[in-house]
Batch of 2 targets.
Target 1
Amino acid sequence: MLLIPCPYCGERPEVEFTHGGEAHLIRPSPPAQVDDETWTRFLYMRDNLKGVSAERWRHAHGCGQFFNALRDTTTDHFVAVYKRGQPKPP
Amino acid sequence: MPKQKFSAFSLISRGLSGQRGWQEQWRKPQPKPQYDALIVGGGGHGLGAAYYLAQEHGLTNIAVLEKGWIGGGNTGRNTTIIRSNYLFNESAALYDHSLKLWENLSAALNYNMMFSQRGVMMLAHTIHDIQVIKRHVHANRCNGVDNEWLEPEQAKAFCPLLNISDNIRYPVLGAALQRRGGTARHDAVAWGYARAADALGVDIIENCEVTGIRRDAHGAIEGVETTRGPIKSGKVGVSAAGHTSVVMAMAGVRVPLESFPLQALVSEPIKPIFPCVVMSNTIHAYISQSDKGELVIGAGTDAYISYTQRGALHINMHTLDAICELFPEFRRMRMLRNWGGIVDVTPDRSPIIGKTPVPGLYVNCGWGTGGFKATPGSAHLFAWTIARDEPHPINAPFNLERFRSGELIDEAAAAAVSH
């Protein structure tokens, strides 16, 4: 089980968290004027990176906060965590 | 190269002569500089596609490129369950096409797939389950796919170990049974297809990882870069399961996939005790017994994207909780091994078999947690798509374009465990 460093609560076991998929996907707007290609990219297309990937997590059974993390998908090692709204660390 | 036929006679005669004189089952060729078509990924789907390209479409100057050893990925890591009781018409046609090929595969390849139609039973534990499962039964029967509703007592008669008492947390309220479903030997699928494809002249190149995809000035496929040097080909079929996103990114194509670890585990081997396959969507478990005697148990996927081929123990514990409640006899059994594979999951939980925006590049992916059952059908249809540069009517709906057009085949809500 992963130990996930919540930026609000510190390290907690994985079962307290829900995974929210790829981070930094921005919903296109205004909806009526967005073309199909853009919707497809937003709704379905994912980088699915092998390596360090930015993803969303929610400490659902803890503080309830959403946050982002950089995690290496080849080792499951958390490289960094950062709060919602903050830019992706380099 | 002509292959020795496997038969009872050959088994006995080689047995009496000290098992000498068996041929190698497939060659270990060096990659040629150029092929008519390349398949990236030497699992069952890729090897099968190569076999059908050679057998049915006459393309014999082709190669399968495998970064590790054949059948070492999800083909060798799944729980070998075969069924075709999917809800939607498109899916029923696809999976039943595969099941029909399974029924003759041992004879077609002269290789014992140990295909056993022992029946797949899916349990209902809630009123909602009953409604969903009965809907599946009716939809399947309209599509010519066998499936029948069993009351709890009938389910217990079919699988005597099943605990149908009403004092467990999720009592069994009934089940759907597909009698044509069952299991097969997973390694035999890779080996059988490899041997048959090799006999038709297909080069199976192991330890050959694709590291780049070359495109010409018009964007069309020109060949691939590999760890064993560049190989030219105008047609490349990607059948790389959990690594599809990685390979497709080499050609600049994004795909609607996420790769998750999916775990399985086996118990110590015991005498034959479990006659069928039992699955439960609601409490997340499936179980069967291999011919070697191990109970083969599967779970849901882990929650996060990963390429590690391992997952967390709490997923397995959750599954074993369910197994122990359904089959109390197994409570004191010891588990022997557990492992993970990387499954590529699409948003609608249906696969993608078809052309891509890049001319000459084809993809067969998105089988998620249920690709093994589809191996022959998927391989057959992928070969058709590559050879004719157009999809077969059965796989036409399973295109990449559906994520733009909105014509999703949403088995996600309708599917088995772990979706």
Target 2
Amino acid sequence: MQVPILRHGDYLIASIQSALTDSDLLALRQSLVQQVGSARARAVIVDVTALDVLDSFASRTVQDLAQMIRLRGAETIVVGVQPEVAFSMAQLGVRLEGVETRLDLEEALAYLAGKRAPGKRTREG
Amino acid sequence: MYDEPILAGIPAVVDSRPGTEMLRELVTHLRQNRTPVRGEWIRRITEADWLTAMTSEEVFAEATSIYDSYVDVLETGSVEALQAYARNLSERIIPRGVETHEVVGIVLLLRDVLARSLFKKYQTDFSLLNRVLDIYEPAANRIANTVAVGFVQERERIIREQQEAIRELSTPVLPVRERLLILPIIGVIDPQRARQLTEQLLHGIRRNRAKVVVIDITGVPTIDSKVANHLVLTVEAARLLGATVIVTGLSPEIAQTLVNIGVDLSKMNTVGDLQGGIEGAERLLGYEVVPIKEANVQAATHG
């Protein structure tokens, strides 16, 4: 199943709605890394609320995805990790380093908005 | 099949007609000799130093009720009333520290005292005594069983309730401010409690939409490597949910243990005490606690 990638201002939002196969995950990674450039996105939000399980491959893919997106000049925020998923990820040793995590989409958008506000660069500055 | 309910389910040892009569005679005997037999029973209870938690009037009242329901059971063969009474009695006496051996002992004493009175009555006719005992003994054993089981069940029910209460109390997740949770932990953390703690914390974060969690372990005397690692995993998992965890109140012993066993604590936010932890959490949430006077001054200068 393909994951829809939505554009929202400067951000890309990928909302995973059902369990993904490994190849779906790789396809998602590929298209996100591609679109982050073409859309000139500042941040990518990956919503995993609907996932009850996140196996080691999926966790690693998300982690790799974040690294790649960072190299492409944007930031990744993972939102909606379920409590059980969070603990099993921690047990698997998946730390999602360098990835921001937020409770849900709303939180992530608030975080991005807050980040932008104080650092707003004007021409005079 | 049997007329006399007391023999229901018990193989008949005497033919049924005399059995019924014998039972009637037995019950009448016990009713007539209520005062002396009860007196003897209470004397032996006191002698055995049982029920010291109760006054002699209470012992007398309970003994009378037990005696009467005992005879009723013999007569009707139905233990339901006795069961209810035993449960009720257990409920009243367990909180006063009456032990299982006392309850069982008392019921067995009554059985013995009654048997003695039967020996005395039928001492001249051995075969008649035998037949009376055939009726009396199974019923008496059943009664002893009923009371003992009732008492133990009541105890177990209380223990279960208390365990439940302790479990619930052991890991409270307390919202102290919007988006700030406190998780005070008191007592030793065993693996089961650690698991429960993680579950409560992670669900608490989701439920309260918490951003910062302060785990206070001032009340935890020691920690082993398994639990320490579990704690680290919990902190990681909380971060994946988008919350920051601050651990406060690590005792010198725990600090030494954690370093000695080589737990990776680089990702853990630690603050000396709960107060510092809450202050740190408030900073993260963008709060600043200002005395009212100063706040008024600030408001005045800005306004």
